[in-house]
């Protein structure tokens, strides 16, 4: 059955800065250097909010006749949508949340790509420049709110989780909302939606009118994890590394629910940063939590971390099983500790400038067969570099699973090969097999999972 579509002319929700002719032309440009394809991909993902899919390539192919055009107006801009998914509309009118998200896409793509490369402090190949760029994108999106006390809990976890795990994440969000805490996630379904949905109920009970449900995504993943409708502040970062840095710069603590390779990537990113000596005394509450049935899952994650990064890494988080109230109380106390520290150090509440992030975590990693095979997965390096390289391995698997470019690489040349120290790779392979067995690689009902990776024995060597 062919999905129904609709043509529509859509006005911006809220204010949209005036666009220059140069910006409009780049958005219309369908060549390799233009922004049309990127904008169309992100716009289509937003219009599919609520649709259960995690395959960006399939989504693009299913809506090959979708088009989005810019229509200049005397006092602004409208978007003409051709063959847009009808479920984004009610009685011919686009859902307000989707309209907000659509123009957030337009705002962030324009801003991220229109900043001159030579602008002071915004160099994309310099660590401080990257952090500055992230700050400017978040400020332009009005995410940074001066004077607001620390209250933002980042929630990570799988998009492919079962109903019991979803309900648990929702109850944790409810307890956070009852304590006036706000939620930031990767904006998609599953453990990204549950805490937001629960928090809305908690906020309603406490009459919290300024509750925040921030969704941070990036172009490569948005098609696989379309924003859920509860997100009221959506930001599209240029790539996964800037998305991850935005999480830890704006969030005041992190809760990790059960997930797959994407969640493992986030955990390794965070622990790699917290293990840096300059961050030793910096308060940053981290809790791993799930139901009693998830106890073995977190034991597996804990053992993997201890084996790869050492016991010091395990000291950076607390595991709380089947106790949403305790999770929320731990985060509430963590917020107080963060506030005390930031005030003493005269650091901003809204952006963690003091957090030291090694450049290896900032530079974009492009998963290809050559770059994946060349990863340095051995113990003869500091723990934070082990974390960085393992993070890249997981990032490549995520790309092969759900990102359009990664899927095409795997279809063309077969699974990515991952090589290195057997002492690191054996536990890695065992954990990946468990993710597959628990249906954490793909959404339930989306068919049998075809691995996008292959663990190979032997020393690391560059692929031909």
From TrEMBL:
Domain Pyrimidine/purine nucleotide 5'-monophosphate nucleosidase C-terminal: residue ranges: 335-456
Organism field: Marinobacter iranensis
Identification of the protein by name: AMP nucleosidase
Keyword annotations: Glycosidase, Hydrolase
EC number, UniProt record: 3.2.2.4
Matches recorded under NCBIfam families: Nsidase_PpnN (NF038390)
Top-level enzyme category: hydrolase
Phylogenetic classification of the source organism: Bacteria, Pseudomonadati, Pseudomonadota, Gammaproteobacteria, Pseudomonadales
Superkingdom to which the source organism belongs: Bacteria
Reactions catalysed: AMP + H2O = D-ribose 5-phosphate + adenine
InterPro entries registered for this protein in UniProt: LOG_fam, LOG_family_nucleotidases, PpnN, PpnN-like_sf, PpnN_C, PpnN_N
Domain annotation Pyrimidine/purine nucleotide 5'-monophosphate nucleosidase N-terminal: ranges: 9-112
Keyword match Hydrolase: yes
